[in-house]
Amino acid sequence: MHRYRSHTCGELRAADVDADVRLSGWLHNRRNLGGILFIDLRDHYGVVQLVVRPGTPPYEALSGITKETVVRVDGTVLARGADNVNPDLPTGEVEVEVTEVEVLGAAEPLPFTINADDGVNEERRLEYRFLDLRRERMHRNVLLRTAVISSIRRRMTDLGFNEMATPILSATSPEGARDFLVPSRLHAGRFYALPQAPQQFKQLLMIAGFDRYFQIAPCFRDEDARADRSPGEFYQLDVEMSFVEQEDVFQVIEKVMTDLFTEFGQGREVTSPFPRIPFREAMLKYGNDKPDLRARLELVDVSQIFAGSGFKAFADKHVRALAVPDTADQPRKFFDQMGEFAALQGAKGLAWVRIGEDSKLTGPIAKFLTEDDVAQLIAEVGGKPGTAVFFGAGEFDEVSKIMGPVRVEAAKRTGHFEENVFRFCWIVDFPMFEKDEETGKIEFSHNPFSMPQGGLDALRTKDPLDILAWQYDIVCNGTELSSGAIRNHEPEIMYEAFEIAGYSKDEVEREFGGMLRAFQFGAPPHGGIAPGVDRIVMLLADEPNIRETIAFPLNGNAQDLLMGAPSEVEEARLRELHLSIRKPQVKPAK
């Protein structure tokens, strides 16, 4: 018999009754019922129940050891009585009567419970991540991630894509976030940058003639954590294709995403085909560019109804309305709670009216609307008796920031929100440039290597803020899964676009010399996209926080509490790298 096991803990079935077996695993749980020990033994593959009789040599050994101790046991498979079958376990029809036990790895007292969720805080869990990963939910999430990546690789290969690796040590690139820098020992005062994305390299692969590339690519960005963004590093399905237009990219990625979410979505409905929503329409109707389409409500611009009106709070402002049908039975408390929710988003209040059976309005601002105003409002929002209408007023972006979340919250509270579905969409026609609110400077709003719609002529003749780009995002259930674009592949367009964003020709040649040289030697039209693997798994696992789907994530402060990173470096190593440390000065307390 094998030194450690003849079977795994998850494979024993009724057909194995009377067999002599050897198992190894972790002591998951222990119960003493009338002097008989019942032990759950766990390994990667599952859990099996052990039974240990009093007066036997294994009894004393297994009575006193700590949970999570690793043991090897020998024993005989027994059939459980009909009343004792556990239908929740694949091994629930059998148990193993232990005849011999060996401790393989003793466990210290545990910092938190493994076999139940005891509400331990995230910092503690990350400090002991190796224990946290033993929990069923975390183990399942990590295995889901493995299966998703395997499925992606298979699907991309079947579609004719070639998996290729790109460099980790490279030059800095304006991807929109801070780089992680690596000092060079051989070149004093110079630094490598960890890639925010393999953007330039995958374009160079297209110029080199490889036609269809993909990679499960590690990306590194020194940015703050969010629920859907892990600080430090993340992984994406990096894709690039030659001789394509936007729709060609859509067809490939839409198929991969649809099939992937169907495979791992546990029966949840998946949008097909994905609707295409222009960026400006998304901002107007949903309040943001990553709309949660499970909420079956839309915002409507009603500014013209209040323009120059006597209602000073709305006069001469951008006003958007949210019509919520079927609220006739909602108590006043519902409206108060929606106002409180809006206040959490930064609103000073949330005005509302409700449409009655006679098309008369009730509510705090009803008295400010004329009969013509009422008729126009009902027509604009498609209101019917029992419909409540909420309003946001102010600057366009301010209203969007508030009314976007209000839209989703109202849908959830009134039954206009779909559960257990994956609602995808493409957001298209992003603006090529945007203005920095503080400096007034024109900047790239998305990917600087994108092709502007209208090409060189648009760059030279249009207001930069009116130029659209061949850029697009995939959004699912309010989460942005990826950004992509049809790339610029012409040097003249690249110079012109970067000049608008404040880069001189010399700066472009210095920062992107490799790309420019490549463009000058026959570059094909090409485009791509990069769906985030971490976010895909987060959605499939129905987890609210992305760190629950990553084996060893950094915490919210970008620290690895298990390994102690970031760590200090000894002076000799700093000298070797030509570095000195300048720590921020701490101001003395007053």
Tell me what you see in this structure.
The chain has about 600 residues and is α+β, with helices and mostly antiparallel strands. About 30% of the residues lie in helices and about 25% in strands. Strands 6-9-10-24-23-22-19-12 form an eight-stranded mixed β-sheet, with helices on both faces. The protein has a five-stranded mixed β-barrel with strand order 1-2-3-5-4. Helix 12 (about 455-460) runs parallel beside helix 13 (about 490-500). The protein starts with 19 loop residues before the first strand and ends in a 14-residue tail after the last helix. The model has no long low-confidence stretch (mean pLDDT about 95).
Tell me briefly what this model is:
The protein is α+β, with helices and mostly antiparallel strands. Helices cover 29% and strands 24% of the residues. The strands form 6 sheets. An 8-stranded mixed β-sheet has the order 6-9-10-24-23-22-19-12, with helices on both faces.
Q: What overall geometry do the principal axes of the alpha carbons give?
A: globular
> Termini, distance in Å?
73 Å
Beta-strand percent range: 15-25%
Total strand segments: 24
| Structural class label | alpha+beta
Query: Mean pLDDT across all residues, rounded?
Result: 94
| Tally of helical segments | 17
Looking across the biggest beta sheet, what order are the strands in? 6-9-10-24-23-22-19-12
SSE inventory with pairings:
Layout: E1 20-33, E2 36-43, E3 46-52, H1 57-64, E4 70-79, E5 94-105, H2 122-127, H3 129-132, H4 136-158, E6 162-163, E7 181-183, E8 191-193, H5 199-207, E9 212-221, E10 232-242, H6 246-264, E11 269-270, E12 276-278, H7 279-286, E13 299-301, H8 303-306, E14 318-324, H9 332-344, E15 351-355, E16 361-362, H10 371-381, E17 388-394, H11 396-414, E18 421-422, E19 424-428, E20 433-435, E21 442-444, H12 455-461, E22 471-476, E23 479-486, H13 491-500, H14 505-511, H15 513-519, E24 526-529, H16 533-540, H17 571-576
Parallel strand pairs: 3-5, 6-9, 11-18, 12-19
Antiparallel strand pairs: 1-2, 1-4, 2-3, 4-5, 7-8, 9-10, 10-24, 13-14, 14-17, 15-16, 15-17, 19-22, 20-21, 22-23, 23-24
Helix pairs in contact: 4-16, 7-11, 9-11, 12-13
